[in-house]
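Sequence, please.
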């Protein structure tokens, strides 16, 4: 059976690193993106030039119709999904809770929580033995922020990732007998451009000395952890949340 991996938010950072590594491991890759068309298409070209098989699909995971279209496109072009990584996520500018409005909260929760639920739903409908599927694996990209809270920066983002942690636990138990494993990774401070979205591109360098390993992480280090959780080497692992945070 063809191994098919959907990486949401796959055009940059951790998602791009995972797409490359997944292709090397033999997965056909769907690089999902919302805005980064050029980056996604360049990544697909790179993967295919190296002998892999990848497609780029635009979809906003917070929009139900987009998610359904994303999975239908994968069904048609790659085959039924066997692995899903809910990597797409957003944060907004550093702010205290007292300065956050409902519109901001709605955007963050829609992308980070609703998107993960919708993509997991569509994957389960295809993977679950209850629906005639052959099983599969889901990895949700959470964050150490879920347990640290990100005070004075983005408590809303941290709360959204705490919801992803709960989704991981509940869903893993719900579908464990249906051939699907569900796990999470919780990155610490990683060198990606999400920090620029929060208004501080140099955030990793500012905080790295607080990490026991005294450095920020690289996207590939998180991607390797995700790929292990997707693999048969983690065949008896479900409901787990793996910190990839340098000890912080």
């Amino acid at each position: 059976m063809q191994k098919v991996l959907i990486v949401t938010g796959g055009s940059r950072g951790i998602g791009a690193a995972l797409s490359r590594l997944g292709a090397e491991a033999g997965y056909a890759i769907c690089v999902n993106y919302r805005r980064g068309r050029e980056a996604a298409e360049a990544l697909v070209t790179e993967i295919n030039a190296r002998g892999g098989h990848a497609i780029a699909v635009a979809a906003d995971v917070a929009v139900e119709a987009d998610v359904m279209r994303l999975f239908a496109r994968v069904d048609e072009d790659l085959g039924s999904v066997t692995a899903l990584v809910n990597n797409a996520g957003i944060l907004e500018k550093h702010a205290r809770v007292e300065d956050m409005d409902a519109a901001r909260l709605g955007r963050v929760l829609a992308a980070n929580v609703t998107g993960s639920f919708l993509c997991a739903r569509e994957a389960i409908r295809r993977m679950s033995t209850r629906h005639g599927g052959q099983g599969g694996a889901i990895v949700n990209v959470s964050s150490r922020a879920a347990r640290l809270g990100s005070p004075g920066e983005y408590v809303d983002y941290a709360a959204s990732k705490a919801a992803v942690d709960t989704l991981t636990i509940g869903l893993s138990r719900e579908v464990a007998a249906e051939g699907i494993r569900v796990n999470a990774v919780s990155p610490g401070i990683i060198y990606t451009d999400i920090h620029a979205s929060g208004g501080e591109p140099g955030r990793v360098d500012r905080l790295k000395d607080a990490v026991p390993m005294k450095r920020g992480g690289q996207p590939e280090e998180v991607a390797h952890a995700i790929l292990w959780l997707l693999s048969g080497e983690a065949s008896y692992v479900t409901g787990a949340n793996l910190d990839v945070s340098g000890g912080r």
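Residues 102-127 form the longest helix (26 residues).
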